[in-house]
């Protein structure tokens, strides 16, 4: 009989505040209806988190169960503020609605990670840039990719739309979506302007002369931008927006005309690479940051302030020249030179905000504030901070020291600042202790909430003491720290070793523990309860104390320790690639296990004390018998160093006694059958090296901690898995990866030199969808033929029985062939339809056109039918023109299509007129009080709307 196992599945993820790959966005108070600093939207591994910055609470979480890629870019629509575009590491883009926390649209067009996203002014189009150097413009209404722009030679770092700016009332002054242009900056040190309607690059400049361009920020008025790169330079550009938008499509007539002008270079104080430039939407400030712990805020002076600055310069120059007895002509030349403002006279440093971690992204909060600036900072060390920067009155004081700033809010308690190096479960598996450099946190495993946060040293190992009230931590400095969970206090710190404490283990009897250190010794400690006097009183207080009893010296650094569950033996792994097994009572050497080629990093002994599993940096797991020390099997377990291995401490059945788990730096966990030496399941989900792992006593869940700052819980389910099926799934995943790579390579060969191409990407999903369409067409044509023959026979024999139809139609409630084919196409997502239609060979076109003709006559889903028809005509234009058979079909289809579209157009016109009628009725019912009649009438004439205070009765 084939043995079955139960499957482990990811249950929850906690310990995350943000990711180092994603940018952060702030949502204002009026929109989120919250007090304080509002909501921060940030990527956290494969999820998107929405944090309440004042309370430090997680408001909601967005996750697509079909995706495991990390979030790399987030953008927010300006027209529909509840709509967010999220880019992922695998090149996909998902549109989320924050009101209902639901996925709306999914796009897949890029081959690599998304780096930047930008909505246009209408909110109907989205531009995306990625590491594959391509720019794709998406239509959010039709849910399709419009086109792909090629021209950059490296990853696109920033995209901005250039369009007619809105007036005070929010209108776009009659501008349409076709009037927009696209400004792009890339790591190839180029900045480009694209005519979106013509799908053509009309202007290119070198943004950085001495390196790569990593960031670009555009002013709110869209009349200028700043680019930054690998050095301290910030290049300022002026955009001739008015000339650009009024020039129409006459770019070829004046090839020398330029709309982007270099205005000079600024120098920031930081010497690191600049990765972000962001202008304040209301105030004359912008912030620049690199990858260090600082964000530089600059101020843009007004014209009056610039003239005052120039006047001071001229005055100082005259004073210096008068002191040096300079001539009048020299003085006049100096005056003329000082009359032209330099770029450093307009843009001046304001202050430098020193952050708690390296800055990843910034965004402005409270964008309408005038007395202070609020800056939201997302750091790479898993925290977010909000800073208040006061705005000084420049009239009273034009020159002063840097402005003071204060950190008002921070989101840091829900996660560690550094990588978690050790995790431990309590005896009842309800609490989890996670230790890192500088902090120890206690978690509720079921809810994922942080119960306690305590300061500690650089922790390398930790464990709960019997009773689950105290946690012991071994540090890099050789100290043992005891923490009381209830009072959140440090009870005692013992200088246990001269080197780092690499491992500690509680004795099975619960009365002592052993520590192993890099000072080549293992020390045994006994738990003692002593009574201490309380200062100033006659009372005493019981306190736990560690007392050293024995010391075991070895020849090399100790990396791991493990007791047998019966307490008879102690296994010690050292830096010389060996494992030594000692008797616990006498500390005499019992066995020496040789075989690993690199040091053994962790060990675990089975519950029956018969097997020991060792894992090493040589990527192998070895199983040894503790009776004779023989190696039962060496398993090549992972593709990188294996950090931890663990048997189930109290297995519910004897069969599971030798099941164990391994965690590796290859970002995966695996479960194994130690009796059959077979891999049972591979658990993938982490996006960084897995440093630590803890298995519950009964093996019903696993906890893992990774370099991506996440702590994940994997629960045992009732779903059975079979070893053969798991191996088949692994082979299928490998085949799909190879297929995807070949499809991407084939896509690169198509039109490699074209500046604008179709925004298509073949995936396994689109291939499957295309195959389903072909299968439906074959079944449908055959069914039409059978039904037609039956109709002909029925004319001569009315009593003839109906034909036997294909089971596919019977399973779908005996649906007709034309409805079955249409349903098949309707089930394909709109964003994948074009790619699925590309799979269809030309030989199935007659069948497809036959059904399209039927759908047009019956007026079924005309929008979808026209979309399929026009795309196929465009794709196979040459073959269709040369086919006499299709010419007859298209001639008959043309007249039906024209009449059908005419009817649809009449319906649209009727509905539009009805909506306008209802709008007029609602307006007439209100009490309208105009502020300025003449000004409002002039603006309405130019295409604006009335600004009025309306009271609806």
What distinguishing features does this structure have?
953 residues; alpha+beta; Methylamine Dehydrogenase, Chain H; 6-stranded antiparallel beta sheet; 41% strand; flat; disordered C terminus; WD40_repeat_dom_sf; WD40_PAC1; Small-subunit processome Utp12 domain-containing protein; snoRNA binding
Helix and strand layout, with pairings?
Layout: E1 5-14, E2 24-27, H1 29-32, E3 39-44, E4 47-52, E5 57-62, E6 71-76, E7 83-88, E8 92-97, E9 102-108, E10 114-119, E11 125-130, E12 135-139, E13 144-149, E14 156-162, E15 181-186, E16 190-195, E17 200-206, E18 213-218, E19 224-229, E20 233-239, H2 241-246, E21 260-267, E22 274-279, E23 285-290, E24 294-300, H3 303-323, H4 328-338, H5 343-346, E25 347-354, E26 359-365, E27 372-379, E28 383-390, E29 406-411, E30 420-425, E31 431-444, E32 450-464, E33 470-475, E34 479-484, E35 489-495, E36 501-506, E37 512-517, E38 521-533, E39 540-553, E40 558-563, E41 569-574, E42 579-583, E43 589-593, E44 600-605, E45 611-616, E46 620-625, E47 631-636, E48 642-647, E49 659-664, E50 668-673, E51 678-684, E52 690-695, E53 701-706, E54 711-721, H6 723-749, E55 756-757, H7 764-796, H8 807-811, H9 817-826, H10 830-837, H11 845-858, H12 862-875, H13 877-881, H14 884-925, E56 927-930, H15 933-941, E57 948-951
Antiparallel strand pairs: 1-54, 2-3, 3-4, 4-5, 6-7, 7-8, 8-9, 10-11, 11-12, 12-13, 13-55, 14-15, 15-16, 16-17, 18-19, 19-20, 20-21, 22-23, 23-24, 24-25, 26-27, 27-28, 28-29, 30-31, 31-32, 32-33, 33-34, 34-35, 36-37, 37-38, 38-39, 40-41, 41-42, 42-43, 44-45, 45-46, 46-47, 48-49, 49-50, 50-51, ...
């Amino acid at each position: 009989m084939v043995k079955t196992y139960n499957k482990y599945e990811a249950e929850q993820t906690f310990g995350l505040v943000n990711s180092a790959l994603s940018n952060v966005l702030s949502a204002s108070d009026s929109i989120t209806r919250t007090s304080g600093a509002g909501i921060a939207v940030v990527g956290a591994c494969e999820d998107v988190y929405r944090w309440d910055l004042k309370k430090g609470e997680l408001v909601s979480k967005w996750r697509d169960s079909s995706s495991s890629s990390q979030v790399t870019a987030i953008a927010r629509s300006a027209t529909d503020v509840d709509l967010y575009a999220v880019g992922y590491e695998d090149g996909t883009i998902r549109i989320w609605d924050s009101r209902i926390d639901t996925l709306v649209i999914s796009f897949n067009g890029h081959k690599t990670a998304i780096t930047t996203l930008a909505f246009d002014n209408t909110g109907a189009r989205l531009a995306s840039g990625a590491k594959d150097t391509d720019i794709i413009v998406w239509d959010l209404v039709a849910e399709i990719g419009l086109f792909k722009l090629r021209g950059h030679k490296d990853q696109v770092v920033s995209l901005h739309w250039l369009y007619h700016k809105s007036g005070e009332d929010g209108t776009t002054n009659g501008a349409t979506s076709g009037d927009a242009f696209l400004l792009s900056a890339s790591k190839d040190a180029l900045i480009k302007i694209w005519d979106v309607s013509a799908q053509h690059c009309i202007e290119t400049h070198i943004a950085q002369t001495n390196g790569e361009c990593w960031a670009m920020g555009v002013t709110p008025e869209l009349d200028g931008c700043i680019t930054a790169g690998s050095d301290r330079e910030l290049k300022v550009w002026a955009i001739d927006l008015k000339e650009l938008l009024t020039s129409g499509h006459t770019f070829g007539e004046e090839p020398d005309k330029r709309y982007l002008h270099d205005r000079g270079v600024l120098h920031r104080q930081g010497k690191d690479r600049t990765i972000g430039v962001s202008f304040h939407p209301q105030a004359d400030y912008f912030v620049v940051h690199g990858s260090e712990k600082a964000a530089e805020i600059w101020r843009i002076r007004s014209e009056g302030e610039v003239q005052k600055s120039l006047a001071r310069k001229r005055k100082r120059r005259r004073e210096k020249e008068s002191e040096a007895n300079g001539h009048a002509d020299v003085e006049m030349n100096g005056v003329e030179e000082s009359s032209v403002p330099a770029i450093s006279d307009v843009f001046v440093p304001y202050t430098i905000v020193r952050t708690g971690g390296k800055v990843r992204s910034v965004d402005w909060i409270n964008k309408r504030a005038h007395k202070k600036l609020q800056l939201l900072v997302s750091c790479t060390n898993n925290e977010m901070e909000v800073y208040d920067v006061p705005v000084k009155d420049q009239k009273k004081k034009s020159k002063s020291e840097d402005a003071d700033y204060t950190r008002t809010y921070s989101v840091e308690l829900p996660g560690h600042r550094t990588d978690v190096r050790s995790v431990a479960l309590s005896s009842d598996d309800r609490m989890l202790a996670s230790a890192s450099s500088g902090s120890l946190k206690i978690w509720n495993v079921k809810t994922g909430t942080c119960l306690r946060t305590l300061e500690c040293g650089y922790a390398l190992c930790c464990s709960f003491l019997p009773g689950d009230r105290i946690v012991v931590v071994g540090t890099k400095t050789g100290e043992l720290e005891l923490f009381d969970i209830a009072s959140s206090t440090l009870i005692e710190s013992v200088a246990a070793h001269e080197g780092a404490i690499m491992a500690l283990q509680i004795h099975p009897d619960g009365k002592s523990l052993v520590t192993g250190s890099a000072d080549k010794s293992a020390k045994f400690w006994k738990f003692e309860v002593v009574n201490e006097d309380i200062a100033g009183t006659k009372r005493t207080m019981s306190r736990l104390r560690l007392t050293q009893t024995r010391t075991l010296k070895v020849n090399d650094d100790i990396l791991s320790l493990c007791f047998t569950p019966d307490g008879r033996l102690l296994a010690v792994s050292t830096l010389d690639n060996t494992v030594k097994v000692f008797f616990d009572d006498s500390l005499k050497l019992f066995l020496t296990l040789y075989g690993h080629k690199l040091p053994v990093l962790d060990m675990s002994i089975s519950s029956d004390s018969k097997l020991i599993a060792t894992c090493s940096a040589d990527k192998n797991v070895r199983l040894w018998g503790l009776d004779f020390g023989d190696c039962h099997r060496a398993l090549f377990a992972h593709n990188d160093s294996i950090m931890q291995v663990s048997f189930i401490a109290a297995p519910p059945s004897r069969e599971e006694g030798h099941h164990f788990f391994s965690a590796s730096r290859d970002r995966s966990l695996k479960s194994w059958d130690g009796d059959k030496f077979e891999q049972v399941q591979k658990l993938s989900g982490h996006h960084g090296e897995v440093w630590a792992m803890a298995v519950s006593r009964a093996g019903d869940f696993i906890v893992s901690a990774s370099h991506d700052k996440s702590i994940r819980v994997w629960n045992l389910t009732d779903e059975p898995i079979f070893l053969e099926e798991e191996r088949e799934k692994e082979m299928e995943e490998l085949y799909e990866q190879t297929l995807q790579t070949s499809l991407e390579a084939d896509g690169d060969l198509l039109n490699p030199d074209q500046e604008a191409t179709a925004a298509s990407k073949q995936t396994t999903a689109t291939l499957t969808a295309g195959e389903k369409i072909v299968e439906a067409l074959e079944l449908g044509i055959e069914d039409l033929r059978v039904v037609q023959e039956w109709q002909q026979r029925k004319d001569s024999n009315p009593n003839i029985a109906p034909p036997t139809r294909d089971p596919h139609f019977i399973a779908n409630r005996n649906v007709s062939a034309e409805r079955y084919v249409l349903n098949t196409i309707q089930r394909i997502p709109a964003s994948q339809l074009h790619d699925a239609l590309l799979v269809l060979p030309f030989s199935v076109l007659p069948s497809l056109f036959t059904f399209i003709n039927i759908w047009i006559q019956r007026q079924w889903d005309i929008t979808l039918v026209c979309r399929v028809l026009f795309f196929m005509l465009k794709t196979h234009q040459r073959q269709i023109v040369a086919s006499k058979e299709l010419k007859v079909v298209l001639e008959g289809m043309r007249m039906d299509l024209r009449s059908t579209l005419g009817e649809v157009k009449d319906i649209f016109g009727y509905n539009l007129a009805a909506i306008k009628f209802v709008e007029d009725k609602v307006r007439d019912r209100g009490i309208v009080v105009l502020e300025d009649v003449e000004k409002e009438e002039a603006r309405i004439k130019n295409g604006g709307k009335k600004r009025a205070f309306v009271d609806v009765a």
